[in-house]
Write a structure and sequence with these properties.
heterodimer, A: alpha+beta, Peroxisomal Thiolase, Chain A, domain 1, five-stranded mixed β-sheet, four-stranded mixed β-sheet, 11 helices, 15 strands, about 35% helix, B: alpha/beta, 2 domains, 8 helices, about 30% strand, globular
């Protein structure tokens, strides 16, 4: 099982005079929240202001996505996911020592919230009175970055457990795209693939012999930082996103081998050692093409690549944890399975999480 | 082992018009200054954290830190075994710089990185479509490195007071422009609005004093053990009130002159720069970093400075 903490080699330890971190972390429970309303790709494409000849469903594998109805937003999704996560957890809100919110979208009650922190509103809503709070943003790598920070706080012994949470009310960017997309090459085309969702994960200090979580390869290839930019519209409600999807895909394929090679060497593992790979959920074709390329380079491939796009689309920072949750519920991912989750996000950020599924899987299957 | 402060750089607008407006340009210049002082190359940074609150055009994606990393030339496209940099944004109001230093302290302590930088800036995203924005455009950057013995952070704590959650609110809302355009029409626009209640300032100051007491009690030290306080400069008058109400002694809390304007997330960075410039830093052994954010939150970091 290759999913241990990456410990520096002995000579490196001597050189740096570094004491290996005393604690390891792991995922204790997961939660999600989804808006009640669905919007099919066919319906969405039917609302485009300009006629575009494109079979979006066939290219992306997205049949429908969830979409917030009035009264639902970033905060309600994040709080819903946090509460669901607590339902599957041994812990009560009182036990949480940290809450990190990672939403890109910050839509609350029709406004884009800047201050106070959304994590403080989540803390208040779930009654986690002892938790310290932090908001972070790192595009679709937000929850990975939250895990990176919380993992370090647990490793250092600052906290024993905490929650990483995100609510993504991201579909307003598709409202903008509907008005402006004129051709298949439009920079707002990728905005038509998004869906709304909330996800949360509780992380805890490992107190037994299990391997815990490996957090590895976190790198920003900032040369590509302007390939995808999202910001509020000037003359319309909500936000818009301009993405050069093909260039991002090419860049991701260009940088992935460097990081993947380093991570596989450090963990002494191969892609074939992993039962499931969860990549960032963008489009089925680009996922499969990247996996094919990586398998060719590294001589093996994960036993299963999870694509969770059909009913949810790309749910930004929540995609990996939504996919993990849904595939546990569906019985595809089982206790003890080895996981590799890979994030490719605007920035261009590449990040990886590896772990053996150590959750109380039965609670998800029976309750859903 | 912990993280020690290698250097600090600050930047105020000047020169080209773009630099006056752009948080990224200001941040990059502050970061370059701090790296130069620390005699480090941008490529030595393992992590770059941006803790700005008010960003260029209220950008949501990607992290502004990625643009700063690119413009700084900190491993924008590492290849092979070359060093890498990981960048991300945190949002933590006036506590951001201290929280960023805490995160980097953790990464350095665990041997994940050798050096990291926290950059913070606030700019008025649009002079036309903002209401209640009173902060001066500014940026600060702090470089941290490994400290085996001697100087470094010894303790961080955060205190949160949710009863003051709504005392200061800022958001971007699609609504009627409060000002008329040249045709005398008030159009609908996305407008940044900052609303501060009358309670915010007194509550923030009271809670800061309360938090300092709690922190000192937990650390098992008294206010007389503190040689220097590097505080948030917002709410206005906070440094003076801390000096007066804690009884720490005259000149031990760094307050920036009023002609600096109101500095938000970069306030502690400017205070640190001033303390270093005036020699206060070099003379001080126990230094308290103090951040205050809406919500209400007080962040405190204790730094042991070995001359």
């Amino acid at each position: 099982m290759p999913c241990g903490i990456v410990v520096p080699k002995t000579e490196e330890l001597l050189r740096r005079d570094v004491v290996p971190p005393p604690y390891r972390s792991r995922f204790e429970s997961l939660g999600i929240d989804l808006p009640r309303t669905n919007l099919s790709t066919k319906e969405l494409m039917g609302t485009l202001k300009h006629r575009v000849r494109l079979d979006l469903e066939n290219i992306t594998g997205i049949s429908e996505r969830r979409r917030c109805a009035p009264g639902e937003d970033t905060l309600t999704l994040a709080v819903g996911a946090a509460k669901d996560c607590l339902k599957h957890s041994r812990y009560s809100p009182d036990d949480l020592e940290m809450i990190i919110n990672c939403s890109i979208s910050k839509s609350i009650g029709g406004s884009m919230m800047i201050e106070p922190l959304i994590s403080m509103s989540i803390k208040k809503a779930i009654g986690a009175v002892k938790a310290r709070t932090l908001d972070i943003t790192n595009a679709c790598a937000g929850m990975f970055t939250g895990v990176y920070i919380l993992n370090n706080f647990i490793k250092k012994g600052i906290v024993k457990r905490g929650m990483v949470v995100s609510g993504e009310h991201i579909t307003p960017i598709s409202d903008s795209a509907v008005r402006f997309v004129r051709t298949i090459a439009s920079k707002q085309m990728a905005s038509l693939t998004v869906g709304d969702a909330g996800a949360a994960v509780i992380m805890e200090r490992v107190e037994d012999e299990s391997d815990g979580l490996t957090v590895a390869g976190f790198t920003t290839f900032s040369k590509f930082s302007d390939l995808c930019i999202g910001k509020p519209c000037k003359r319309a409600p909500g936000a818009y996103m301009l993405a050069e999807a093909r260039k991002i895909h090419r860049a991701a394929k260009e940088v992935s081998p460097t990081i993947l090679s380093k991570v596989l060497t450090d963990t002494n593992s191969s892609l074939g050692d992993y039962d499931h790979l969860i990549p960032h959920q963008t489009s089925e074709r680009s996922i499969l093409s990247t996996v094919r390329q990586m398998s060719k380079i590294f001589g093996s491939s994960p036993k299963n690549t999870i694509i969770n796009l059909k009913n949810y689309g790309n749910t930004a920072s929540t995609t990996h944890f939504l996919a993990l949750y849904k595939n546990i519920v569906d019985g595809v991912i089982k206790k003890g399975d080895s996981m590799m989750m890979v994030s490719h996000a605007s920035g261009l950020v590449m990040a990886m999480l590896m772990f053996a599924v150590d959750l109380r899987v039965e609670s998800y299957v029976s309750k859903d | 082992m912990s993280a020690k402060i290698e250097s600090v750089g600050t930047e105020l607008p000047g020169g080209a018009p773009l630099a006056k407006r752009s948080a990224i340009a200001l941040s990059v210049r502050a970061a370059r200054k701090s790296l130069k002082q620390a005699r480090l190359e941008p490529s030595s940074l393992g992590v770059l954290i941006n803790s700005s609150v008010y960003k260029d055009e209220n950008i949501g994606e990607p992290a502004v830190a990625a643009f700063i990393q690119r413009d700084l030339g900190a491993n924008p496209i590492p290849k092979g075994d070359a060093a890498t940099t990981f960048s991300f944004d945190i949002i933590d109001g006036g506590c951001g710089l201290i929280t960023g230093m805490e995160i980097i302290d953790g990464l350095i302590s665990c041997g994940e990185i050798e050096h990291g930088i926290v950059v913070t800036s606030d700019v008025n995203p649009s002079s036309r479509y903002t209401v209640g924005f009173k902060f001066r455009n500014s940026a600060a950057a702090v470089v941290l490195g490994r400290s085996d013995v001697g100087s470094g952070f010894t303790k961080f704590r955060q205190y949160e007071y949710l009863e003051h959650h709504q005392d200061l609110r800022s958001n971007v809302t699609f609504r009627k422009d409060p000002r008329k355009n040249f045709m005398g029409v008030r159009r609908m626009r996305n407008i940044l609005t900052i609303e501060e209640s009358k309670e915010f300032r007194p509550s923030a100051i009271d809670r800061t004093i309360e938090s300092i007491d709690l922190f000192l009690e937990e650390a098992g030290i008294g206010i007389s053990d503190i040689d220097l306080v590097i505080p948030s400069q917002y709410p206005v008058g906070l440094p003076q009130e801390v000096e007066k109400r804690t009884g720490i002694g005259h000149g031990k809390v760094v307050a920036l002159p009023a002609d600096n304007g109101i500095l938000y997330s970069s306030g502690p960075g400017f205070a640190l720069r001033r303390a270093m410039k005036e020699g206060l830093w070099a003379r001080s052994e126990n230094v308290l970093f103090l951040g205050v954010s809406p919500g209400l939150k007080v962040s405190i970091g204790l730094y042991r400075n070995t001359p």
